[in-house]
Amino acid sequence: MAWYPGAKKMELQPESDAQPAIKPTQFILHSIVAPWTPQRTYEYWRDSTNLESHFGLGYDGSLGQFIGTETRADAQGPANRRADGTGAVSLESASNLQASDPWTDAQVEAIVKLGVWLHQTHGIPLRVCRSADDPGYGYHRLHSAWNPDAHSCPGDKRVEQFHKTVFPAIVARATGKSTSSKEDAMPTAKEIAEAVLTYRVDDPRTEGTAYKPLKSVLWWAGADAAQANARVKELEGQLAAVNAKLDRLIAAHTQG
Fold first, then answer.
1. Of 156, 124, 129, nearest to 145 (Cα)?
2. For labelling alongside 154, which of 46, 132, 238, 240 has CA 20 to 30 A away?
3. How much is the pTM?
4. Rounded Cα gap, residues 125 and 127, in angstroms
5. Quick check: bond before 154 cis, omega within 30?
């Protein structure tokens, strides 16, 4: 069995030893419909039900692992373990009581890191599962075979995050194109500076036209600076001429 080094080990027994082995080919995300820490999730799996997931994720990004990823966990119906011995790794994440809230930034980061590790450790391919048996990444309601009760897990907002943020970040980081789940969305300092410099506003003097206010200010500032420099040089020349004249007068007076 494999234990993720980024999670706190909270091994469930007898499930961890008694349940059959799997070859992990999928990673499926869930919401537990409760604002629980990994410890509370572990206690629920241990004391209240014969079901369990491999991982439990708190709002603050804390992660617990209850079953090794090469052992069956019972969170998503037929995907737990198929006849060929393949199965899904499951993660339950803290949510509100309606499972209507998005994952926090800390949760997103934890999911991305785990998703990359699963790709690197078990070779889960970097694609969204195209069918219930297809290797890859997904969420509980993605395929009806995983979700026979037809509930909305992990919730609409988290499904949207999965497609727009979470899965793209797993792919980017696993392929070396990004080091942070947020990096692709953050502009560089150069991009910010260029955006400010070229920002356009409507010109009130001429309908239908626009101008770049900051660039205009900088141009006028440059023009004023050039004029000032020219004036300084002119005054310096005049002062030099006056000093030369004074030197001649002083020399004539001294000789007289």
1. 129
2. 46
3. 0.70
4. 6
5. yes
